[in-house]
Amino acid sequence: MATTSKAALSKTEDTVTETIDAAAGAAPAQVRDLAEKSVKQAKDGYARLKSVAEETSDTIEDAYATATKGYKELGRKSVDAARSNLNAHFDFLHALIGAKSLSQAVELQSSYARQQFEVMSSQVKELSSLAQKTATESSKPFQQLASKSARYAQA
């Protein structure tokens, strides 16, 4: 994309230069100066626009890469939590099958429920913290871009 833009800019500059040179002999000096100033302003404006567009594109790419990394980690942690919970449930079922009495089975159930509540609470806290961190880090490039834009607008 950058090569195409550079080629287009170069071609536009060449065309404008040729047009100015062709009209230079026929136009009075004031008109020629005005045309040259207009062309210079147009070139400067295009260069600024191009720079802002490239910076915005880079910002979007950075935000996407950060979000992708964070959501992969969130997915991995979710799978780990599910695996851990499933293994704990199978261990509980194995112990429940081996219970010798109803009171032992009730005690196993109560212990398992209490333990799983604590484990799942911890997992939810960890996953929500990771999701919040990912969202915050993903938005940083946009915050920085907005800050630069505000400074540029003030200048």
Automatic annotation (TrEMBL):
Database matches in Pfam families: Phasin_2 (PF09361)
Q: Where is the Phasin domain?
A: 50-143
Report the InterPro entries cross-referenced here.
Answer: Phasin, Phasin_subfam-1, Phasin_subfam-2
Domain of life of the source: Bacteria
Query: This protein is called what?
Result: Phasin
The species this protein was found in: Hansschlegelia quercus
